[in-house]
Write a structure and sequence with these properties.
The complex is a heterodimer of chains A (248) and B (670). Chain A is of the alpha+beta class and 248 residues long. Chain A has helices at residues 35-48, 120-127, 150-160, 167-171, 178-189, 198-211, 222-226, 234-246; strands at residues 3-11, 20-29, 71-72, 75-76, 98-102, 111-113, 116-117. In chain A, the strands form two sheets. Chain A has a five-stranded mixed beta sheet. In chain A, strands 6-7 form a two-stranded antiparallel sheet. The two termini of chain B are 42 Å apart. The complex binds flavin-adenine dinucleotide (FAD), iron/sulfur cluster (SF4) and FE2/S2 (inorganic) cluster. The site of iron/sulfur cluster has 14 residues of chain A, from helix 4 and helix 5.
Chain lengths: 248, 670
């Protein structure tokens, strides 16, 4: 059954604008639409009425690029679990609902326009150690010359599935980036290839995280709940261990 | 200009080694004085940017997303091929080469494909050294799976997120170089044009998508790695921002565009659900390892299912038609993509489709669940397991293998694929065509290179699964870094290219003119309106089956649509802010030109080959009846189109393909 919705959406014309919530209404929304397709339809309506469409980030629309964001009814990536905003479908809402749509808010993620925020702080943390220093010469050893236990490989893979969306930061009352950084540190900490630079990596990435203005972790665990990729708090614990190891 | 593929002399197995031994090199001190621009940071551009920076060049890299990590390579699910022969099942460089040329229906350049197969093993070594967490077996060694069109198991994978993990590997290599200042990364920047100085590519004009600023960037060479152009169909499995613009801009400045009509329509995608549809989602080909494809054997059953009166699980085995297993006993559900897609269309056109639109077939895991369940029970020492136990154990195995895909399907369709078969239908997925390049990956513009999906080089008329990731990384890590050095060795004394040359001024001016046109054009229809209409023309007349009449009509319709677009497009907002509609308008303008050339290319190619199926060219009798009919006498060439103004007036140049190491044969998967 098609739905009629009331939408309250954050509009902000550039980083220096104050910004405010604006009301829209949209009718004939199909439950099979994705949330972003609903916004497409709204934007088409706004354009036809001579307005400026709502800016929001998106690209792959299949939950893997990490580009989409949105804080929907007070939750990063909306009410469903284990998915990104682009994977949210309108069947999770009912006819007559009012939906609040805001950007991911954090000091380290300044608003660019409307619902679009700048998450390049994440990239800058990666520049400080999110890699293994190996050249692409083509002369590396045969991939099977170093067996890695399936268990360690699977755990490294689980940590590596982080898509860098920033929902963890947006959800955290301290705007902490520990889940994101912990996931990257863990991926390499779990693999033999990552050992050589382990101490420098964790020190440098944590220093950059602090410099970017992300807050501290107080173990609330909200990040884990909202993370679309199920990155677990164990990664934060592992990062803390790595950090202590590096500093003794 | 005559096309020169610059393929080195000598036996195929020695060409690349000999080539590397004889090219000119740039010494490390001189590399510091040379700048290279890389447009795109997917697997191809990301790996190229990192490697060029490691070698010592100054690299400027560009992407339209907010981070290099978000390039659409991230979405690749299934895996990456490499001729490692870890499974000891008879794989070799030659076999990978052979499979790729055959899979491409003998429309690729042998020497390029051989080189690809040759460097494939290095890719896996490289990625593992970078910390890419490929799947492993209990002994700790790398695991493999099979993909369509081959008889060996050579595909490496990282759950259903192989592209993500490979891209994050390339991204990490980039991060190391960004941290050292050897790569300057420009996120949220769109390339608007290429700048030629004395006939050589010497820079680009970009638009900063946040501030709207139009900028000039100079370099000694320009590398285009901007991905595929499947979005010319509006609906595809590509990302929303995927575009042809970077390739199209170089085309308009002299780079030939090759085989635009070679498109891969992937057989296993989630069907269209309504008019609001903005993109289509792939269900990885790896599912065909375990899923069986079928439609009802009887028309009444198909109709009952469409009307919701029957469920797929109501049908017994003999009421089902496993049409791929029936038609292609040797390869069964693992036939190549083009064959599987056409077979699905054939059944649906004949009335056997299973969803409300009549455009869907089943992909069923019930047998796989049973098979795995029994196997697991045995492993656990249970020789007489109950049906429930088999079911439970089997589902666990299927979940471990494909869990994220099943979840994705459930979220989109709202049906549980562990309990009822998936519905799938073909969708536009990949473009084999692209900018023409020689053996060095250089386009017909000196100093302008093209790598990854954006070029035409390795997949002929059809790409085999798990080969695009391989090609992107081969181009970026192992091929371009050599070939570009040979060209740049002439530039060690050139010095920095100034950006105040008249050529830059002129290019910037025309870019600004187009931008101003869009924001000031008082049209009445949105950019998407035109894009969707273009997509419909392409899908209906230039899609899975093509004929001369439809193609001729498509050309005229696209031209008319293009004219309407320029008169009536409405772009709200201004030029000097973040403005997605403006960015989209530029991309759709280029799609509206490409679309027409695409149809023209399909019209000229009167044979069927790979993903290009001309209804006029099918086998009419014998065991191959109904299958595509290639014409090697008249069409064993690459079509390379030269831009002259209107797409309809483009000039065709032919690169004749020679097959010295593989015998040209009818492609049979029977
Ligand atoms: C859903 C899906 C699943 C797939 N699965 C597999 C698989 O399992 N195995 C396999 O081998 N292949 C697979 N493929 C194909 C493969 O992923 C792609 O062909 C390949 O990753 C393309 O890489 P690329 O580097 O050429 O381009 P992309 O990764 O698309 O990168 C393009 C880059 O160019 C930039 N760009 C584009 N236009 C501009 C512009 N105008 N200005 C500035 N920058 C620009 C983008 O920002 C981006 O950085 C899949 C493809 C899809 C869509
Ligand atoms: S940890 Fe989870 S929520 Fe945080 S960036 Fe990664 S995927 Fe997003
Ligand atoms: S748009 Fe890519 S994750 Fe949502």
């Amino acid at each position: 059954m098609d739905m009629n919705l009331k939408l309250k959406i954050w509009r902000q014309n550039g980083a220096n604008d104050q910004g405010k919530m604006v009301d829209y209404s949209l009718s004939d929304v199909s439950p099979d639409m994705s949330f972003l397709e609903m916004l497409d339809v709204l934007n088409e309506q706004i354009i036809n009425e001579g307005g400026e469409p709502i800016a929001f980030d998106h690209d792959c629309r299949e939950g893997i690029c990490g580009m989409c964001s949105l804080y929907i009814n007070g939750e990063a990536h909306g009410p469903d679990r284990g998915i990104t905003t682009c994977q949210l479908h309108m069947r999770k809402f009912k006819d007559g609902d009012t939906i609040y749509i805001e950007p991911f808010r954090a000091k380290a993620f300044p608003v660019i326009k409307d619902l679009v925020v700048d998450r390049t702080a994440f990239d800058r943390i990666q520049h400080q150690g999110g890699f293994i220093s190996v050249n692409t010469s083509g002369n590396t050893q045969d991939a099977n010359s170093l067996p890695i236990s399936k268990h360690a490989a699977d755990e490294a893979m689980d940590a590596a599935t982080c898509i860098g969306c920033g929902a963890c930061v947006a959800t955290c009352k301290n705007s902490s980036a520990m889940l994101f950084v912990g996931a990257k540190v863990s991926q390499y900490a779990l693999l033999p290839q990552g050992q050589v630079e382990a101490a420098d990596r964790v020190r440098n990435m944590v220093a950059q995280m602090d410099a970017e203005g992300f807050g501290n972790c107080t173990n609330t665990g909200a990040c884990e709940v909202e993370c679309p990729k199920g990155i677990s708090l164990d990664n934060i614990a592992r990062m803390n261990r790595e950090f202590f190891k590096a500093n003794i | 200009m005559a096309l020169d593929s610059k393929v080195p002399q000598g036996p195929i197995a020695d060409k690349w080694t000999n080539y590397k031994n004889h090219i000119d090199l740039v010494n490390p001190a001189n590399k510091r004085n040379i700048d290279v621009i890389v447009v795109g940071t997917g697997l191809a551009g990301g790996s190229a940017a990192a490697t060029l920076a490691e070698l010592g060049y100054n690299v400027k890299a560009f992407a339209y997303q907010d981070s290099p990590r978000r390039a659409h390579s991230i979405a690749a699910q299934g895996g990456i091929n490499a001729a490692k022969n870890y499974q000891g099942d008879g794989d070799s460089t030659y076999r990978l080469f052979y499979d790729t040329v055959k899979g491409g229906d003998y429309r690729a350049r042998e020497a390029n494909v051989y080189r690809l197969a040759e460097v494939s093993a290095n890719i896996i070594d490289q990625c593992v050294a970078q910390g890419v967490p490929f799947a492993r077996d209990y002994g700790g060694l790398l695991d493999n799976r099979s993909f369509g069109g081959v008889l060996v198991s050579r595909t490496f994978y990282a759950k259903g997120q192989t592209g993500q993990q490979l891209l994050l590997g390339a991204y990490s290599a980039m991060n190391r170089q960004i941290g050292r200042g050897k790569i300057q990364m420009y996120n949220r920047h769109e390339m608007m044009d290429v700048v030629l100085v004395d006939g050589k590519a010497r820079g680009i004009i970009t638009r900063n998508l946040v501030t709207g600023e139009v900028e000039r960037h100079s370099a000694h060479a320009v590398v285009i790695a901007s991905g595929g152009y499947g979005n010319v169909f509006f609906l595809s499995t590509n990302a929303m921002g995927s575009n042809v613009s970077a390739s199209w801009k170089i085309h308009k400045k002299g780079a030939y565009f090759a085989n635009p009509c070679y498109t891969q329509i992937h057989p296993t995608c989630i069907p269209v659900s309504g008019d609001h549809q903005s993109k289509l989602t792939l269900m990885s080909e790896s599912l065909r390892n375990d899923g069986r494809i079928w439609v009802p054997a009887k028309l009444e059953d198909a109709q009952a299912i469409r009307e919701g009166k029957k469920k797929p699980t109501d049908l017994s085995e003999d009421e089902r038609d496993y049409y791929l297993e029936r038609r292609y006993p040797a390869f069964g559900n693992l036939v190549p993509r083009d064959v599987a897609s056409r077979a699905a269309k054939e059944r649906c056109d004949a009335g056997f489709g299973v969803n409300a639109t009549g455009e869907a077939v089943y992909l069923d895991f019930a047998d796989a669940i049973k098979r795995y369940g029994r196997e697991q029970a045995l492993i656990h020492g249970d020789h007489n397991p109950s049906a429930e136990k088999i079911d439970k154990l089997g589902k666990e195995v299927v979940k471990a293998k494909y869990g994220n895909l099943f979840q994705m399907y459930d979220k989109i369709v709202d049906e549980n694929p562990y309990e009822t078969p998936m519905m799938i239908y073909p969708a536009v997925h990949y473009t084999m065509g692209g900018t023409w390049v020689d053996y060095n990956l250089m386009t017909t513009i000196p100093g302008c290179y093209c790598i990854g999906e954006a070029n035409f080089s390795d997949h002929g008329a059809n790409r085999l699964g798990a080969s695009a990731l391989m090609q992107g990384l081969a181009d970026g890590y192992f091929v371009l870094p050599y070939t570009i050095g040979d060209y740049l060795s002439d530039d060690i004394r050139t010095g920095k290219i100034p950006t105040d040359l008249p050529e830059f001024e002129e290019a910037e001016k025309s870019v600004k003119e187009q931008i101003n046109f869009f924001v000031n054009n008082n049209g009445t229809k949105s950019v998407d309106h035109f894009h969707k209409r273009l997509g419909k023309i392409m899908w209906n007349k230039v899609g899975m089956a093509r004929n001369a009449q439809g193609l001729t009509e498509a050309m005229a319709e696209i031209k008319a649509l293009r004219e309407e677009f320029w008169k009536d497009v409405k772009v709200p907002g201004s030029a000097d802010t973040y403005n997605e509609e403006l960015a989209k308008a530029g991309r759709v303008a280029d799609f509206l030109e490409l679309g027409e050339l695409f149809a023209k290319d399909a019209l000229v190619r009167e044979e069927s080959c790979g993903g290009h199926f001309r209804e006029e060219s099918a086998e009419t009798e014998g065991p191959q009846k109904g299958e595509a009919k290639r014409d090697d006498v008249n069409f064993a060439f690459v079509s390379a189109w030269e831009y002259t103004g209107e797409p309809a007036d483009a000039i065709l140049h032919k690169e004749q393909l020679e097959f010295n190491d593989i015998e040209l044969k009818t492609r049979s998967y029977k």
